[in-house]
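Section 5.1 Outputs to date
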Amino acid sequence: MQGQTVIITGATSGIGEVAADRLALKGARIVFIARDNARGEETLKHLYAIAPGAAHAAYYADLSKISEMKRVSAEIAAAEPKIDVLINNAGALFNTRKLSADGLEMTFAVNHMAYFVVTNQLLPRMGAGARIVSTSSDAHKGAKLNFDDLQSERGYSGFGVYGRSKLCNVLFTRELARRLKGTGVTANCLHPGFVATRFGDQSGGILSFAVRAAKNFALTPEQGAETIIYLASSPNVADVSGGYFYKSKIATPTKEAQNDADAKRLWDVSAKISGVG
């Protein structure tokens, strides 16, 4: 990873923080997008402490807003002539249905649309050998997309909507890999396992309690980050694209996650919503 530039979202805590650390120690320069300035500055200080030889950088944005997704991506694209790895990792889980500033259901906005917009905006800076890694989850199992109700207006459950957003991540990766065929840029996604991080703590209500209780039996962030690090850096997957990985091995997502027609339709809907892609 020496001399490589890695862009990562969700790097101020949990598996994203561990991945940023490990990749920095391998020689990568880390450029991350954060929402909270204080946490961002702490992460930046930490990166400089453990890997002082690279010009690590922080950018700030609310990735629930399409305008912010576009702004921060444009700023990074203007500053970075070459991007070697993009890691889409920021995510959220909400106990009750909330709407973003754009009128999108928040889980869909943060967990899917941010991946879609940031990736499309940064693609022009990625050449042959570059990698796109997106954090999905086995929570996609059992989920189905209803294209007539992508914003979950007709019934809402926090875990159910989260599972659909993770299905979106696999479908997004599938269609992205198809579009990138022949370019030398790869796109893969992964299930990190259930990890004890800050994730879900702010969900609200019984959901926050359930998530906190379950974390007693969860993986450590170090274990959860292993597959992200593997997909970002291992020569073994340099030419692999469109895969879904678990424990650094190729895994099989659900039948719904392998639906090419749904993958293309989701891409087209996302492009229409965002005006990119």
